[in-house]
From TrEMBL:
Pfam families: FTP, Peptidase_M36. GO terms for molecular function: metalloendopeptidase activity; zinc ion binding. The lineage of its organism: Eukaryota, Fungi, Fungi incertae sedis, Zoopagomycota, Kickxellomycotina. Binds 1 zinc ion per subunit. It comes from Coemansia guatemalensis. InterPro entries: FTP_domain (IPR011096), Fungal_virulence_M36 (IPR050371), Peptidase_M36 (IPR001842), Peptidase_M4/M1_CTD_sf (IPR027268). It is found in: Secreted. GO terms for biological process: proteolysis. This is Extracellular metalloproteinase. Zn(2+) binds at residues 454, 458, 484. Residues 1-18 form the signal peptide. Its EC number is 3.4.24.-.
């Protein structure tokens, strides 16, 4: 493994050590909400022909408990009753086994929303629900439901829904104890015995539940919890009788369903916004030069990061551990990380007129955010677990795990640079971001997306070229140069805006360095950026960053040619491959997987052409050839490391 830096002219002084051992497994063990994924859940139905409800004013003999309480008008009650009849007829389920939990008419749209839950033995089946939308003229315009079939309902043994005796109170306590173990704060027998339990009837809802008192603080901050009877349908639609236990902790408010007989937690919901918020420069703002920070809520992509980005309350999670490292040393596990406010809110002051150490928490947050963005984006485009990506836990079971990125903000081992070290799959890569001394106050690379994107892309290209286990494929010469080039190219794709045109030039590192850190701006104008294939023969173009600049410029041409032909996607995360910029990113990653170890420019170009052929059947082949040919890497170009590079400006026959 070697450490690859952003710039050629500053050598990185510290070589990354092998993956540290003894890593905390907390990313894997954090308590996360879950629920049965119902196989029979019906997707949201919009009724093209709205279905008229049979409203029979006040004539339906529904028991009071089937309708919501005092806030509901007679008209809503009639609609509610008619909705229950509609569901009963439509899905062949007994209306006596349903109740309306809410019904209200939206004052703007005039649509009435009716929410229904199924019941058995007078107890709610918490996840057997239906939502029905009713138009002003009392027609069902749309609906969704995951109701339990009648046969399942009748199979449930009759039992008393009310908790009247000692054995019920005891079960409620056992349910609390089972939840406590699940939450990692077990209650022993004595502590369970010390919990006081009593049956209470709510004055507002009339519902009966067990109130649990003298609960240890570790489980419930208030010392109290509640438990009530419920049923839950499992993935296959069968029912399990549960206790629904509600406890509030410091940073969570759990509502759990516990199968006491089976000794396990069936579902777990966190009423605390199970969310993550970051006050950061969002993905369309490359640096402080382009705009201000915003609160970004729940940015994690659910395919790429199904359990979110944050493990718990600080800047570490399954994809990246971000921390400061002012000494520049090799330790990182116990380095400083900002602590989030309750509910994973990361919001720290950033005064750009101060020196970077003054805003280190904002910097670490930004670095954490951008690394996770890179993880999710590259995952969507095929740098996933099987392809050797960077994750502590590989949810698919594919690829090697235990290799989330170590990302050091304001690392003290250097200045005016950044670097990334990529060991093989299963070992942690390390990103080090430095402070830049060009300006006063100094500027922090953590705040500049193109720099972080450049570094992360070293990880992508190294793991994808030659397979996840081989990190030795992009070492020096043309392949090492293209390693730099792909990193600039991905940074460019990410920062391009819908308002940009051919006359927009992109300057890598322009926030920290105040101008481009490369020889030329990235531009489709031959005068602004004259780089061509022949440059690889120049004595001043033997260093990887210079070679990479030529490659990135060619890719910049390809990107624009694809955008010209196919249009621009505002959101790369939508993975809309019919658009030029998204297609470009896809072809780059696909090409990396196809190309050989230590590829030449010609190999890498051919891999991109082949990837495109495989993806679209070659619809853009001539477009891509044209863009490469513009910079001298046309059909008859030849050359490789140690050999003369012959330019060619032609495209293959047939184009
Ligand atoms: C109707 O209800 C569904 C949930 O079942 C909801 O997602 C949808 O937005 C509602 N439609 C209208 C038109 O209000
Ligand atoms: C490791 O986990 C423990 C709790 O299990 C936690 O206190 C500690 O901070 C974790 N280490 C890191 C580096 O976050
Ligand atoms: C961020 O925190 C500051 C206080 O430090 C607060 O004034 C501001 O409203 C918060 N911003 C957001 C978007 O929550
Ligand atoms: C070719 O494309 C198909 C989908 O069109 C994809 O499944 C396959 O992985 C691709 N193969 C290569 C070698 O890129
Ligand atoms: C090859 C490898 O390490 N696979 C692991 C992927 O992750 C799963 C779950 O974390 C492990 O069980 C596998 O061993
Ligand atoms: Ca991995
Ligand atoms: Zn680099």
């Amino acid at each position: 493994m070697k450490t690859i830096s952003l710039l050629g002219f500053v050598a990185a002084s510290v070589v990354a050590s092998a993956a540290p051992s003894g890593i905390n497994n907390s990313a894997a063990t954090a308590i996360k909400p879950f629920r049965p994924i119902l196989k029979h859940r019906e997707s949201f139905l919009v009724h093209e022909e709205p279905i008229a409800l049979q409203i029979q004013a006040s004539q339906l003999s529904l028991s009071d408990s089937a309708l919501v309480g005092t806030m509901v008008s007679d008209e809503l009650k009639d609609i509610g009753a008619a909705v229950l009849n509609f569901l009963g007829a439509q899905y062949k389920v007994p209306t006596s086994n349903m109740r309306v939990t809410n019904a209200y008419t939206d004052s703007a749209s005039g649509i009435t929303h009716v929410y229904v839950v199924q019941t058995v033995n007078g107890v709610d089946i918490t996840n057997a629900v239906a939502n029905i939308n009713v138009s002003k003229d009392k027609k069902v315009i749309s609906s969704s439901q995951c109701l339990v079939a009648e046969a399942v309902l009748t199979s449930v043994t009759k039992e008393s829904p009310l908790m009247q005796d000692e054995s019920d109170l005891d079960q409620a306590k056992q349910a609390l104890a089972l939840l406590a173990s699940h939450l990692g704060v077990p209650l022993d027998k004595t502590a369970t015995g010390a919990v006081a339990a009593a049956v209470v009837t709510s004055e507002t809802s009339g519902q009966t539940y067990v109130s649990l008192e003298t609960v240890p603080d570790s489980i419930a901050i208030s010392g109290t919890a509640t438990a009530s009877r419920a049923y839950v349908q499992q993935e296959d639609g069968s029912l399990v009788s549960t206790w629904r236990v509600n406890v509030e902790q410091q940073d969570h408010w759990w509502n759990a369903n516990i199968d006491v007989a089976g000794g396990k937690v069936i579902s777990l919901v966190d009423w605390y916004a199970n969310s993550e918020s970051y006050y950061v420069y969002p993905k369309n703002i490359n640096s402080p030069d382009e705009g201000t920070r915003k609160m970004v809520v729940d940015p994690a992509n659910t395919d790429a990061s199904p359990k979110g980005w944050v493990t718990e309350g600080s800047t570490y999670g399954n994809n990246v551990w971000a921390q400061s490292n002012p000494t520049g040393g090799n330790n990182w596990q116990n380095n400083h990380r900002p602590k989030a406010q309750s509910g994973n809110v990361f919001n720290y002051t950033l005064d750009l007129s101060a020196q970077p150490p003054k805003y280190v928490d904002a910097a670490i947050t930004q670095l954490f955010y951008t690394n996770n963005l890179m993880h999710d984006l590259s995952y969507i485009y095929g740098f996933d677990e099987a392809a050797g990506n960077f994750q502590d836990v590989n949810y698919s079971g594919k690829g090697a795990d235990g290799d989330a990125v170590i990302a050091n903000a304001q690392d003290g081992s250097g200045t005016n640079n950044a670097n990334f070290a990529t060991p093989p799959d299963g070992q942690r890569p390390r990103m080090r971001m430095y402070v830049w001394t060009i300006t006063n106050p100094r500027r922090d690379g953590d705040l500049e997306q193109d720099i972080v994107a450049h570094e992360y892309t070293h990880g992508i290209s190294n793991r994808l070229t030659g397979g996840p286990a081989n990190s030795d494929c992009l070492d020096y010469g043309e392949s090492g140069g293209m390693g730099e080039g792909w990193s600039d190219a991905v940074a460019n794709i990410m920062r391009l805006k819908s308002t940009d045109t051919h006359s927009t030039d992109l300057l890598l590192g322009d926030y920290v360095y105040t101008k481009t850190i490369r020889n030329y701006a990235y531009s489709t104008n031959m005068r602004t950026n004259p780089s061509t294939y022949k440059y690889l023969d120049r004595s001043d173009y033997q260093e990887v960053h210079s070679i990479g600049e030529v490659w990135a410029e060619m890719l910049y041409e390809v990107m624009w040619a694809l955008i010209d032909k196919n249009g621009f996607s505002e959101d790369l995360f939508a993975h809309d491959l019919s658009k030029g910029n998204a297609l470009m990113l896809q072809l780059l990653l696909d090409g990396m997987k196809l190309q050989p170890c230590t590829p030449s420019f010609i190999d890498a170009r051919n891999a991109i052409i082949q990837a495109e052929k495989n993806l679209t059947g070659g619809k853009n082949a001539c477009t891509i050839w044209g863009a490469f040919a513009k910079r001298g890497l046309g059909a008859k170009a030849s050359g490789s490391d140690g050999k003369t590079h012959y330019e060619d400006y032609s495209v293959p026959g047939g184009c």
